[in-house]
Amino acid sequence: MATIKDIAREAQVSISTVSFAINGTGPVAPETKKRIMEVIERLNYHPSSAARGLVTRMTNNICLYVPHPKSNIFTFHGNNLINDMLQGIGESIDEKDYNLLLAWEQPGSETDAKIMSLVNKKAIDGILFFNPTHNFKPIYELIKQKFPFVFMGRFFDNEPIDIVDIDNFDAGYRNTVHLIKLGHKNIGFISPGPLNYLVAGDRFEGYQEALRDHNIRYNEHYFYLGDNREASGYSALETFLKLKEPPTAVVAGRDIQAVGMLQYAQENGILVPEDIAIVSFENSQLAELHDITSIRTDLYRIGREAAKLLLQAIGRRKERQTQNIIIPSDIVIRRSCGSVLNPE
Amino acid sequence: MATIKDIAREAQVSISTVSFAINGTGPVAPETKKRIMEVIERLNYHPSSAARGLVTRMTNNICLYVPHPKSNIFTFHGNNLINDMLQGIGESIDEKDYNLLLAWEQPGSETDAKIMSLVNKKAIDGILFFNPTHNFKPIYELIKQKFPFVFMGRFFDNEPIDIVDIDNFDAGYRNTVHLIKLGHKNIGFISPGPLNYLVAGDRFEGYQEALRDHNIRYNEHYFYLGDNREASGYSALETFLKLKEPPTAVVAGRDIQAVGMLQYAQENGILVPEDIAIVSFENSQLAELHDITSIRTDLYRIGREAAKLLLQAIGRRKERQTQNIIIPSDIVIRRSCGSVLNPE
DNA sequence: CTGAAAGCGCTAACAC
DNA sequence: GTGTTAGCGCTTTCAG
């Protein structure tokens, strides 16, 4: 393997000149540079990232820190959306020639062992957090160390940190308003998961706010705590329809729940959207497959913006204003909500 | 940040002793070691991976090299399965304290620019290839350089390389035999994609071989070239049923195609499995949702074995026998095939 | 514009 | 068992 020394010798210059030529960090005469570049090409030379990293203290690696793959949360946004996010991240990091390291904690190990190890041993320059839960210890340590990171998804503490997120509150609000505009007053809500997950909590609050804004009283019997299984949508609808005054529309917390509702409806001769209108979140393949109106999350843009922001933060290590970027999402109207109207 | 020098000074030993103590690469007196470890703990010292990498020529990073996220191929095996694979990889690399770098080529860039750059600049110690297409240039360069890598999925050349794969031929064979055993003789086959993708080609060959083994003549009208969209299953069934002698069973190339078939069947009053039996591949969420018999691919084991193999290869850089590990897959019987019999 | 030289933090001979 | 020392391949003052 050729080293910078070989290049210097072959090009008849010193190694510092070679370094200047490669990095543009010092003046080099055009012909000298040309000669150097030729030798580099000829010897197929590539600077060693370890050697470079040792002196620059940069690795050109960022870490995408995700929940454990086995976790349901990992597929929270529907699967193909993760691909979208990766694509967005990829585009941003490619521009600056950064690499992407993927990491998560093994269940049973310390909750932040992996990520702090990566930070401590200086294997990464920054972190992209993609973790819908907010209970997050390492954050504070990282803030203290001034280690660059960006949060994808809301983080409810008021620490000044970089965040890129969709507005789940807004999504819940718009889904609900959409139903209200269609004339519904009795509107059920299935939470996508425990309300202490911000995604779920925010959507629920958006739902409530929409009701308030339209002078509809929130009925606690119209709330059903769901999870990531079809069955939770199924039993939600079952439960709702047993009420004396059942809802005429439901905001499903996620597409798979909407599918469960569809299942129950079909088995029991209930018509969608005639008897019960449904809107959902995620706009996954399932929504498309079953003609379910659903909120589309632009994870591509989230990924791209978050990575861009992180690279900026890495670039200027000085104090800088933290940013809070909200990526808008839109509602994809399909059959299940009983309208082809556009919302608002 | 504490360095090895600080530790040496505080522990009143030389830096080599510290190094020996940390890595176990030299004899250190128990009390000395204890003292050193205490200082390390106290100063929260972590060896710099760049410095270490510079001398050991190891990065402790491996690269999972995948198709572009936008590519359909990326979701070929169904999405949650990718998670399974990641989990498997994660378990293996955690044991040896390795990190996972995720990389793919941006469309439009050179087909192997990213991966060869990673190799050249010595940012990784080995590569896990996950790429269903076989048209793969960098392989030969890597072989020449003796750079460690493992292929997940078949590679049809006869180069001696490490491979971990499921037996798609076997899967196609077993799906077909399952239908034959149920009494079917006219069996359609929808390819999951172009036949030059080995996944598709192998499944198709398994299908053909099963027919041959049971003295059933292959009928080319029973072949339909599908893709990754529901519509291809839909039109496949439509096409098949228009034949003078339509098939009574179909091997769908992937779950989404089976769903498309179900859709067509439902719209046209065709009963599944009574009128047409269906088996498929992937065993994705869709298969579960729609009660489709499907072949389960154990991507968890593929990931785990592949990463393990790669780490072995990285460990002993000497000549070693390449391995060819086949991970068995099994068939998950559901309603769509018209049996609860176990195959074979 | 170019070169000499001092490290970056660590490992691994080699000497004692 | 422990210390000394020579690098690993590169960046970056600082002179000239």
Automatic annotation (TrEMBL), chains A, B:
Residues 2-56 form the HTH lacI-type domain. The keyword Cell membrane does not apply. One of its GO terms (molecular function) is DNA binding. Keywords: DNA-binding, Transcription, Transcription regulation. The keyword Transcription applies. This is LacI family DNA-binding transcriptional regulator. The lineage of its organism: Bacteria, Bacillati, Bacillota, Bacilli, Bacillales.
